[in-house]
Write a structure and sequence with these properties.
By secondary structure, the chain is an alpha+beta fold. It is built from 29 helices and 40 strands.
């Protein structure tokens, strides 16, 4: 069997060859492991760790400060914070502050109603008032313009140094209204009496800011007086009557069904006007209202088919969603209004029975170019005799043939009829329905106090004139309606307007003692709808530097920031005004969202009486639940407060410097000194907080001399690697020492107002303080500050450590100290340490200089501080060494934590529509005027033959894809090292080779040295990134999200109807001037076209 022998020999040879290959591979692996001996990496890590900790401890003075606090250990008392008592006290403080604001508004209401009662309307009244646009304006001859007299304006610190007049108010009139209209002149005249009350309110409560009266006639009286500037088109778009505070105060919550006629006769301009009318109605709806939109011809078409048969809350997101769908409407067929009315009545009735809506006013808005019947049988069956659903009818177009039918429908159902002929008519005519809905409240004479959600009104001059970082100030408005008390107008229920004042959200934060909430603790407040009024995680702006508002910034739900509470236990309890406690594990991001702190929070919450708000306080378990009190003499403390390196948190309220004008210029440090020395007996200060500030000043005083001696010793820090030493205490007290001149600082923004994350502010402790508190006591946390750009440009390293009184978790963290050093200095220490070896002859078997290995220094979140490739500094390790990071995750050295961002903005390609038509553009207005004249001359031709062509010519739209930023939900990872794993070695099978690595923890730090063999590229492993991924919802889930109604609490008052209400004033046909012949012929054709 020679063949068999040959086969066996061949097989044996192959076996031997395979064995040799396996042996060689094993040798290669063994060799690779020998290239990175663990003992050498340990030596490097130990050498670097010892050196850098010695530098950090020496220059920060951490051991000296720890020793000084220990010396006072017996003299301090440690208390556990009672969260419920704390939140109740804070709520009481806020209640008192809010009450002062509402009382100021109430005084304005009383003064306005009294002034109007005494005034008799004079159609010929001539009155020169201060017009906010025209004040201080002169003509070519140098004379003041009419209504533009001299109005003294001076910068005022309380009003952000804007030029204002604190003795007088001035008046803004919308661009589309006549300045000297008799109704406006009379209203301005009698409301002048408010000037005295404005000034008196400001004297009583110097913390007040803008006060105002928005008239139902359209003018807006504002105090203090300020100059208004038109936009580039010479237009001021502001109309107080479509502001949320006005609408909310003037009307009660409502459920609204909007019916839009899309029959064939609505083609062209009519459909455009109809869509604009719907959009304007949506503008008048707020968070307490519910709505749906149905388009009808011979069939019903829900604008959002998913919401068939139900209503949704009129929050901004839902309204914008419907606006986008309006563009899909087109006109065809015959209008069957009866089926649309029946659907609307049934929907309102069914939704009312669910108990989810407003349970107050209900209305049907009908937008059509005509109705051939009055549909009294439908109304008799579904709405009479109670007439619980008001009918508002909007006749689109110039024809008046069907006006009587539409007016009858409105009048028979306690509504209002109006006709809209042009786009310019839309807003004024839509506003009419608000006056009708306000009647019951006016007749009841119920001055309900309303509070808005947090918002920014960028159309106001004070917002436009401020710099970007100041102007976009979140605020809430307290407002009350003003009624006519004249007897002859009682049944008519005439609303005169609304008065209000703004309360910046930052004013709320001043009432919160941040020092009692601990390092990670915070306070937050929500509205009756669950929307955030204030929360440290609320991010209303995007594109840092541009300061642009997110579209849905004012309706961010608490569940979107406290997202770990999947069952909305916390949110729902607060909405229902409960007082209780709730605990859960949370994942809080810091450092621009790149790092995560995992902790357990205890939440305490209660309601703020007299407002729709609820207040919550979050305290982190462990050191965050404890507070300590120290005691030193005032003399000792004052002496040490005088040291030049001392500062206090600007946004904390140690003393209330807003109460008296003479105190407003004082810094908090000056106010404390004046208070303690008795120089300012009228100052109101937090005695408990000031006592603790004095204690911290005394205990930390020796460190100032210590830093000074280091700075003066020329042999120390000769290469000026360490630039800054700093400390902060739990009272917002800080000390800073520079080891180099201010102009030599590598990071000029550090510890300044420009670097908000690293200073004490109203929301949080500095980043270096928060991170140090979560480190093992005695160890330092090192980090590279992340820049705001796409690439990390940082050239410094920050190191900080926490100071504790006791050696357990019940000890409060009393302070944190640290240094900032040059990155180049820090990296040089690393490379020096990595060249050490244990051999006696000085020849090292391995070095970070070797070409076949890469050395890295990473932190506990996986970010690179040192790499041979300098451009990788600040990058995430997984992006550079994906295979190694993947292995570390598998082995448990690092763990991935999934985070969610429900306030994200994602780039998306969207179809952009650029319309050439704008009523506010003077050129387009000119063409619109020509069009109007020609339309009047040839009404029939324009209306039925040329309308489509004519209108489409003026509204030529360019469709193209445009990349925009849209609100979205994202999911993204963060990474944290496992503290218990000190060192790890591993091999990675990379298809044709093995990649070996060693990771070694640096003692007393949050750092790890990682040494990786680079002979294997491991391209089969993808990089691990921290890029967020947009969460995409399928159509079914989108629909469920739209339909879902989170628990909300209705406003306590409702004024839907009143038996004395005069429903006969229900509108009329205005401005109809067409000749009979031009009216009859279109009427006939219109009937046949249906």
């Amino acid at each position: 069997m020679p063949g068999t022998g040959t086969l066996l020999r061949t097989f044996a040879a192959l076996l031997a060859l395979s064995w040799t290959a396996v042996s060689l591979r094993s040798v290669a692996v063994a060799g690779a492991e020998q290239q990175i001996p663990l003992s050498v990496v340990k030596l490097w890590a130990s050498a670097f760790g010892g050196e850098i900790r010695s530098i950090a401890a020496k220059y920060s003075g951490s051991q000296l400060l720890q020793k000084k606090y220990k010396e006072y250990e017996k003299d301090v008392t440690i208390e556990e914070i009672d969260g419920l008592q704390l939140v109740k006290k804070l709520a009481k403080n806020m209640e008192e502050m809010f009450h002062k604001k509402s009382e100021a508004v109430r005084r304005l209401v009383e003064a306005a109603e009294e002034a109007h009662l005494k005034h008799e309307f004079d159609a010929d009244l001539q009155y020169e008032y201060f017009n906010a646009v025209l004040i201080n304006e002169r003509d070519e001859d140098g004379n003041y313009l009419e209504l533009g007299k001299e109005f003294i304006l001076e910068p005022n610190e309380h009003f952000n140094n804007l030029p204002v007049n604190v003795t007088l108010s001035d008046v803004q009139v919308p661009t589309n209204m006549y300045n000297k209209d008799p109704a406006i002149v009379n209203g301005v005249y009698w409301s002048e009496s408010l000037n005295k009350v404005f000034v008196d309110n400001f004297d009583r409560d110097p913390s007040l800011i803008w006060q105002y009266f928005g008239s139902a006639k359209g003018f807006f009286r504002q105090y203090p007086g300020i100059k208004w500037e038109p936009d580039e088109n010479g237009v001021i778009a502001f109309d107080c009557r479509n502001r949320k505070w006005y609408i909310q105060a003037a009307t009660s919550p409502k459920d609204v069904v909007i019916l839009v006629d899309v029959s064939g006769s609505m083609k062209g301009l009519r459909l455009t006007i109809a869509k604009q009318t719907v959009s304007s109605i949506l503008d008048t709806l707020g968070d307490d209202d519910f709505f749906n939109i149905i388009a009808y011809n011979e069939e019903l078409h829900y604008v959002e088919p998913c919401l068939n048969g139900t209503l949704v809350q009129a929050d901004r997101a839902n309204k914008e969603h419907f606006r986008e769908h309006l563009d899909k409407l087109f006109a065809k067929g015959i209008g069957m209004l009866d089926i649309a009315l029946i659907e609307a009545f049934n929907m309102l009735s069914d939704f009312n029975h669910t108990g989810q809506g407003s349970i107050c006013s209900q209305a049907i808005m009908l937008i059509t170019d005509g109705a051939v019947d009055t549909y009294d049988a439908t109304f008799a069956k579904y709405n009479w005799p109670d007439r619980k659903v008001r009918i508002f009818t909007y006749l689109i177009g110039r024809e008046s043939a069907f006006a009587d039918n539409l007016k009858w429908m409105a009048c028979a159902n306690k509504g209002f009829f109006t006709q809209i002929s042009t786009l310019a008519d839309v807003q004024e005519n839509v506003m009419e329905y608000l006056h009708v809905l306000s009647r019951p409240k006016v007749i009841d004479q119920e001055h309900d106090v309303i509070w808005t959600e947090a918002y920014v009104d960028s159309t106001l001059p004070q917002a436009q004139k401020l710099a970007d970082d100041q102007g976009l100030v979140l605020m809430t408005t307290v407002a009350m309606p003003v009624f006519s008390k004249q007897n002859e107008t009682r049944a008519k229920g005439i609303l005169l307007g609304v008065v209000g004042t703004d309360v910046p959200v930052k004013e709320l934060l001043k009432t919160i003692p941040k020092y009692k909430l601990g390092i990670h603790g915070y306070a937050f407040a929500i509205t009756n709808n669950g929307y955030i009024l204030t929360h440290p995680e609320l991010r209303p702006l995007y594109e840092e530097g541009k300061k642009r508002r997110k579209p849905n910034y004012s309706s961010v739900d608490l569940s979107e920031v406290e997202w770990e509470d999947r069952d909305d236990v916390l949110r729902n309890a607060m909405v229902n005004r409960k007082t209780a406690k709730f605990s859960m594990e949370v994942k809080k991001t810091v450092d621009k969202g790149k790092r995560v702190l995992v902790m357990t929070n205890d939440y305490y919450y209660t309601d703020i009486k007299g407002t729709p708000f609820s207040l919550g306080v979050a305290l982190s378990k462990g050191h965050g639940k404890y507070f300590f009190r120290g005691n030193v003499s005032i003399e000792e403390g004052l002496h040490d407060l005088e040291q030049p390196d001392v500062s206090l948190a600007d946004e904390w309220s140690y003393c209330n410097t807003d109460l008296h004008p003479e105190h407003r210029h004082m810094s908090q440090l000056t106010a404390i000194k004046n208070y303690l020395t008795g120089k300012e007996p009228l100052l109101h200060c937090d005695k408990e907080l000031i006592q603790e500030v004095l204690f911290d000043a005394v205990v930390s005083a020796p460190i100032e001399a210590y830093w000074t001696s280091l700075a003066l010793n020329k042999s120390e820090n000769s290469d000026k690697g360490v630039e800054v030493a700093f400390l902060g205490t739990r009272t917002g007290f800080s000390r800073v020492n520079l080891f180099v001149g201010p102009e030599q600082l590598t990071n000029q923004d550090f510890l300044t107002a420009e670097d908000k994350e690293n200073i004490f502010n109203a929301d949080h402790f500095p980043l270096w303080y928060r991170r140090a508190a979560e480190q093992i006591p005695g160890s330092f946390v090192y980090s590279i500050p992340f820049s705001t750009g796409t690439a990390n440009k940082s050239n410094v390293v920050t190191a900080s450590t926490a100071i504790q009184l006791l050696d357990d978790r019940k000890s409060p963290v009393v302070a944190a100290v640290g240094i900032q050093m040059k990155l180049e200095f820090f990296q040089r220490k690393f490379w020096t340490a990595s060249r050490q070896c244990t051999s006696l002859d000085g020849r090292c078997s391995i070095s970070c200089d070797d070409e076949n290995i890469n050395c890295y220094l990473i932190d506990n979140n996986g970010f690179i501080l040192v790499s041979e490739d300098y451009t990788q500094t600040g990058s995430f390790f997984g992006e550079v060494e994906g295979a190694v990071m993947n292995k570390l995750l598998i082995m448990g050295s690092f763990k991935r934590i999934t985070l969610y961002d429900y306030q994200a903005m994602c780039r998306t390609n969207k179809e952009s529509t650029d319309s050439a038509y704008s009523l506010l553009d003077p050129y387009k207005a000119f063409f619109a005027a020509i069009k109007w004249i020609l339309t009047e001359l040839v009404l029939f031709l324009v209306e039925f033959n040329l309308c489509n062509w004519w209108h489409s010519d003026l509204t030529a739209k360019a469709q193209r894809l445009k990349q925009t930023l849209e609100p979205c939900d994202t999911e993204y990872p963060a990474f944290v090292s496992e503290r218990t794993i000190k060192e790890t070695t591993g091999n990675i099978d990379c298809d044709d080779c093995l990649k070996s690595f060693v990771i070694q923890q640096i003692q007393n730090s949050n750092l790890f040295m990682v040494v990786v063999s680079n002979e294997c590229s491991c391209e089969s492993f993808s990089p691990i990134t921290m890029e967020p991924i947009e969460i995409r919802y399928n159509e079914s889930l989108k629909c469920e999200r739209l339909k879902s109604h989170k628990i909300r609490r209705r406003p306590e008052s409702c004024h839907g109807f009143h038996p004395e209400e005069n429903a006969r004033e229900c509108g009329g046909v205005l401005g109809l001037s067409a000749k009979p012949a031009l009216v009859v012929l279109p009427l006939v054709l219109a009937i046949f076209s249906r």
